Amino acid sequence: MLNKFLAFVLLLWSSAAFSQTIGDYKSGFKRQGNAISFTTTEGEVKLDLCTPEMFRIRTSWTKKFEPNENLMVIKYDWQNVTAKVEEKKDQFILTTARLIIKINKIPFKVDVFNSKGKLLTSETNGSITKENTKVGVTKKLQADEHFFGFGERMDFMDRRFKKVTLNVGRGKGLPHAIGAYNILEANYCPVPFFMSTKGYGIFFHNSFATAWDMGASNKDQYRFTAADGELDYYFMYGPTFPAILNSYTSITGKSPMLPQFALGLHAGTYSGGTWGHEEKTSDQYVVELARKYRTLGIPVDLLWLDSTWRLFGEIGGKGATSFEWRETFKDPKGMFDSIYAMNYKMVGLHLRPRFDNAKKLNLLDQARAKGYTYPENGKPGEFVNFFDEKATQWWWDNGVMRVAKLGAKFLKTDEGSAFGALANESEKVGPTGKQAERLHNLFPIAYAKAPFLEFEKFNGFRGLNQTREGYSGIQRYPYIFAGDWPSEWQYFAPVIKAGLNVGISGVGSWAHCMGGFEHQADPELYIRWVQFGMFSPIALVFGMDHPGYKEPWNYGEDALRNFKKYDLLRYRLFPYLYTSMHQQYETGLPMMRALVLNHQDDENVYEIGDQYLFGDHLMVAPVTTKGAVTRSVYLPEGLWFNYWTGEEYEGKSYRHVVAPLDTIPLFVKAGTIIPMQPEMIYTGEKPVDVITLDVYPHGESNYDLYEDDNLTSNYKTGNFAVTKITSSLSDGGLVLKIAKPAGAFKPTAHQYLAKIHWKKGIIPATITENNNQLKDIGSIEKLDKDAGWYYDKKSKVLWVKTVGSNSGDIVISVK
Predict the structure, then answer these.
(1) How far apart are CA 611 and CA 664, in angstroms?
(2) Is the peptide bond between 654 and the residue preceding it cis, with omega within 30 degrees of 0?
(3) Which of 22, 267, 391, 452 is close enough to 477 for a disulfide, judged by CB 3.0 to 4.6 Å?
(4) CA pair distance 613, 668, nearest whole angstrom
């Protein structure tokens, strides 16, 4: 009986999860440059200093560490960090210019303080653990601590007291209403990174599925774990969110500048026939679609053909790519040529990551024979092995080049989550096993990286790639779009929240299908969604509702008028948007910003997921309720103006504003200067010979206008110019200074038209430019040709057209 009992206990023990901590500090403290290592009773811990405010922690129970990878992280080499290390009886103390890191010996744990001794984060005893293959760490949750980030989440902004699992996928289960379109499960672009309102961020450098319990199970602590792999994370101190985001994107990479025309409209098409209507597709439909946008005067610069341009293959069906044109496309090259003749800048094609055979081409057979597909169950698979450079090059040379040489200039890389998981269009799971699990979240990055870099070389200008799935690092191969959300009111607000969350997670170039993707849209929903879409980082219109396809003329006159109005406004905002894009490239600060990014100490903004800053100065508040013609907004600290009416509001307050169907609530902060270009229906249609400066004077304010050649990568080596613009308002009047552009790049010549919101309500006594008096020319129409000024009493707007150009400094004085 005793032997049976012991055997039973042994069985229970062996079947239970085996959990161990990293133990206590044992010996072997070593320091070599920025690298510091500690031997513990159960393994080894490495601490790498990156900057005075950032360090990396790695923990191994085997004393072996994984080699560096280059899909999530692109920077491992850091300049030497000056740091003092003291060993005391019970702890080590590392001190940099910004941080104090205290490492407890028994048990081993890490606590972090800022240079003034304020606690940032601390660990519980025995907090670093391994349970079978699962690794994790537990930290104390402070009483007023809140968390933001985690990627493209549609459910919440603030993660305090919540759980989340991060693993690329759209959600599981059928029907769609409770599966694929479950906003709680949607994980198209998870990012294992968060920022705390205590002024620090943590990036968990692990490609396996991660789980985060941010105080849901225990309100006094939070914990993050990975299913396997190494306990490897970066700690970064801000204390501001923009500073933390800058540090995170210095590790994983900044979003590159896209060609300026990529700020224009991106229009997708099923070429006349979506699923079940493939026989209706044709190259002629695509040409006529491109022509209709032009005929109606709707600004657009990019067009792509979704799935139905190609024959569905013999093995993978809709879920794989054969690179063979459907028979209904009689002359693909002629199609591309005709579209480019209408001044479209790029035409692209949709594809999926698996090879397939069709009627004439057998690329799947060829790739398998050469070993260029990723193995599945020990046999040649179907997925292009984007982790193998030779396989990737073969895919480009023998697949993509078939369409690139005809005129395709970019790809929409769809279904990146299908590697090691259930795909949209088939029952296939793809590769399985531990290595596939490790690579599942990395596959979308490798998949987007390949065409981004190859097309950049082939086209001879900046790369562009559209993709649906991503993970840490995907921001380097933009852009991400939000996924196939149905055209229903219930999904509208969550999509806005997705854009805000992915932005505060380092992915700034982001888009969504205006009006939703699937189902015929309610015209009112279409109108409201388009308004939001035109104030998104990338403006994209595309749908699979046959025969509407989200084309604006198919949703009524109001929808068409609304679409054109906001599309034209977006194109006028190019100088402002382009400057914001460069700011994103330099700092990691997204174009579309959750309010918490700039107001992390204002608890009123923590759960605001339906309004945002667009660049530094525009506040956007989409209307997401059917039938609503008003909405409540929160205006953070400062003085704000209603963009449409000029009404003035004191900040840190809630306001209820009127928003008729054709109006999206927009606000500008006092002191704002917004540069705008002439109206046009495609990039480069007209010369930008006059830049309008929309000025909201308030005290001292400034704006740095960024310009470059709009196309090449020379901006990376400093070939750009910055025009410094300052505004100074006092009792005596206003002084507006526009400096000559500074930098290696020489912009084209342009004058300036200042649109000054002159709230004083009195006609200025004198207006001078560089001490020379300007004349009142009597009407705004005359400013199209002549320099001078005009005051519109009704709108209280003062218009001033400069005599000089950007060839020299300009000082406008209003008295």
Answers:
(1) 11
(2) no
(3) 452
(4) 9
